[in-house]
Amino acid sequence: MADQRASIRVQENKLSHYLTVLRQFNRDVRLYLFASLLFGFSLFGGIYSLLLNLYLLRLGYGPKFVGVFNATGALSFAIFSLPAIALANRIGSRRTMIAGTLVALIGYATLSQIELLPVAMRSTFALITYSFGLFGVALYVVNGSPFLMSIVTPGQRSHVFSLQAASLPLAGFAGNLIGGFLPGLIASVFDLNPASPTPFRHALLISSMLMIPAALFLTSTREPAIEPEEESTPSGGQRPLGLILIVSFVSLLHVAGEGSVRTFFNVYMDQALGASTSLIGAVVAAGQLLAVPVALAVPLLSRWIGNRRILIVGTVLSALVLIPLGSFPYWTAAGMCYMAIMGFAGVRRPAFVVFTQELVPRNWRTAMSGTAAMMAGLGYSGIALGGGYIITLYGYNYLFLTGSGLTACGGLIFWLYFRKPRGEFVANVSADPY
Question: Helix, strand, coil: what percent of the chain each, to 5?
């Protein structure tokens, strides 16, 4: 009994410390997280992510063009990740993020209006505007992690990145719920055909406009103080470039499974399973909601098993849960698998960011973030482009099995390379106070 009471007190102390760390986040961290919430609600897993593919389907396109379209966007993100590094080195991560938010606003708002163009111009215009929008997203994403690393203390890193990873799906949950009903609501209010592209066009435009307050939040932050670098090379004599290359290659592979789901799940539900837009929105929202508590648990898991093991376990489970996704053609089975994949992604992503950012010195963090983002974009592009053809020739089950195999390969390479500590930048890694 005494041991049980002592264990309860330890858990209460951990929770109390966890909440104390969250309350210690400074004003700039809070403003960044507010902007992140708006991105999640609108673009990253929210309204736009839910409705964009459905909008294309209602414009008369099929899975093949949806695959090419998403592959072009992901490839653009990958290509623009390198200029994002160069621009950050010139004007700083904060200003680059603000510029990226405004570019994303222009690109996504313009993309939403392709229905107004002649049919012959729509495909080319959609690809150009989507690529331009993804240029803005690359500027924002590549510089987000280095910016956060520069405005928090080492002991707050796991907490802030887990909170960001939780805030995105939480905002996406709300965005998907609202997005699932928004086209129908617009159609009802303006007396439009709910099966036509027009309600989707208006909903996507509304979603893109949320980048305006996101830009205002980021503009209200301050330039981070420049601190002297404590060491110039990682411990153990490892060159940062070698670590960046291996991390980037792993990133290329392990996003394949998640990318196949994020790109084609709503298409799969709509075309293969005949689900309504509102049902798709509810299922996707539930998956986003599940990712919230698991992401918030990352600091505790990190202290218990470490970020390296979190990445390995999360990647393996992500690969396994993809196997039944396309094997059981029922929306209930698909929904459960989707929720599991989003949950594992919510654990894996913050652990990956903290682990990889702490591998290199401060002046290499933007390069690490940008190169990993570039390779992740290539991974998304490959699975999106190939996925459209795989679906057309063989079906959705082969697509999800392909994503599972590639993700498993990424996890295996990561485990083989990092099974023993190597190259961590000790000056930037502090012990968690738990």
Answer: 80, 0, 20
